[in-house]
Write a structure and sequence with these properties.
By secondary structure, the protein is mainly beta. 10% of the residues lie in helices and 52% in strands. Strands 1, 2, 3, 4, 5, 6, 7, 8, 9, 10, 11, 12, 13 and 14 form a 14-stranded antiparallel beta sheet that branches.
C-alpha cells in the first residue's frame, strides 16, 4: 500500500492537479471608498438593561436603563488623495435622534457635517449651517471623526473561500464589538463561548457579488458591567443577518442584529436578576441621484 506522500508524488508527476472548488468564493466585506460616490444610510439601534433585586421570594427594587439612536443620512465622498489616503466627505442628516437614559438629542437633524481626515494631523468636522449642538451630538460627532469606514478587515469575513452552506469560526471579541450592545461590558469564559458564521446564499447582481451571511454568537458571561459577578450559566446570545455586497466593490448592505442576556448576580449580599436586550438595523444603499 502506497503512503500518502508517495501517492501525491505519483499524481503530480502524472500531470494530475487538484483544482479549487469553483463554487467557493472569497468573501470581502470591507470596501475602499471612491470620490464621487453617494449613499443613503439608515442606522437604528435600541439597547435596554434591567436589574431586579430579590431577597428570597420577595422582589425588591428595579433599575432599568434604555439607550437608542435613529439616523437617516445622505453620505457623499467628496475627495480622496490617492497618495496619502486623506479623505473629505459630507453627511447630511434628514433624521437624527440619540437617547441616553433620560437625555435626548436631535440637534444634528437637518444639518450637514463635512468630515476631513488628513494623512497627518487631527481630523475635523464642520457643521453646515452652524448652530449649537447638544452634548450627545457632540460625543457622537467626536467618535465619527475617528471612525474610518472601509479600513481594516471585517471580523465576520472567512479567511478562505467558501460556498453557500459553508460555516466558519468568527473571532469572538471583534464580533462582539461589531454586533453587541456597546454599553454592556462583559467578562467572557472563552472556553465555553462560540461564534460562527454561515454563507446562506451567493449571487451576481449589477456586476457585483451579493450574498447572505448569518452569524450566531453564544458568549458565556462571567461579569455584567463592572460591578456585577454573574453566576455560572449566563449566556449572551446574538443572532445577526448580513445581506449585501461580498466582493468589496461597494458598501451596499443590510444588517440586522438581535441580542439577549439573562442571568443572576450577587450585589451587596442580595440576588439580582439581570436582563439585557439589543436590536440594531443598518442599511447602506447607493444613491439613485
Amino acid at each position: 500500500m502506497r503512503r500518502p506522500v508517495a501517492l501525491l508524488l505519483v499524481l503530480l508527476s502524472s500531470g494530475i492537479v487538484f483544482a479549487e472548488d469553483p463554487a467557493k468564493k472569497a468573501i470581502k466585506l470591507d470596501w475602499q471608498p471612491r470620490a464621487g460616490e453617494r449613499y443613503q444610510v439608515t442606522d437604528e439601534a435600541t439597547s435596554s438593561r434591567k436589574l431586579v433585586s430579590r431577597e428570597g421570594d420577595k422582589v425588591g427594587s428595579t433599575d432599568e436603563t434604555k439607550d437608542e439612536h435613529a439616523f437617516a443620512l445622505s453620505w457623499e465622498i467628496i475627495s480622496i488623495d490617492s497618495k496619502t489616503g486623506a479623505r473629505k466627505e459630507r453627511r447630511t442628516y434628514s433624521k437624527f435622534k440619540i437617547q441616553h437614559e433620560s437625555e435626548e438629542d436631535g440637534s444634528l437633524e437637518g444639518k450637514s457635517v463635512v468630515l476631513e481626515r488628513p494623512r497627518v494631523g487631527m481630523p475635523t468636522a464642520d457643521i453646515e449651517p452652524r448652530g449649537k449642538l447638544g452634548k450627545l451630538a457632540k460625543e457622537y460627532l467626536e467618535e465619527q471623526k475617528y471612525r474610518d469606514e472601509g479600513a481594516g478587515r471585517n471580523p465576520l469575513e472567512p479567511r478562505s473561500p467558501v460556498a453557500p452552506g459553508d460555516s466558519w469560526e468568527v473571532e469572538l471579541t471583534p464580533a462582539l464589538r461589531l454586533l453587541g450592545d456597546p454599553l454592556v461590558e462583559v467578562g467572557l469564559d472563552r472556553k465555553k463561548s462560540s461564534a460562527h458564521a454561515k454563507l446562506v446564499s451567493l449571487a451576481q447582481k449589477d456586476g457585483a457579488s451579493f450574498g447572505t451571511i448569518e452569524v450566531t454568537i453564544e458568549a458565556a458571561v462571567n461579569d455584567f458591567a463592572s460591578e456585577l459577578k454573574l453566576e455560572k450559566g449566563a449566556v449572551y446570545k446574538i443572532q445577526a443577518k448580513l445581506e449585501g455586497c461580498t466582493d468589496g466593490s461597494r458598501p451596499d448592505r443590510s444588517l440586522t442584529v438581535e441580542g439577549s442576556l439573562d442571568g443572576t448576580a450577587k450585589l451587596e449580599g442580595a440576588s439580582v436578576l439581570v436582563s439585557a436586550r439589543h436590536t440594531a438595523r443598518l442599511v447602506v444603499a447607493r444613491s439613485k441621484e
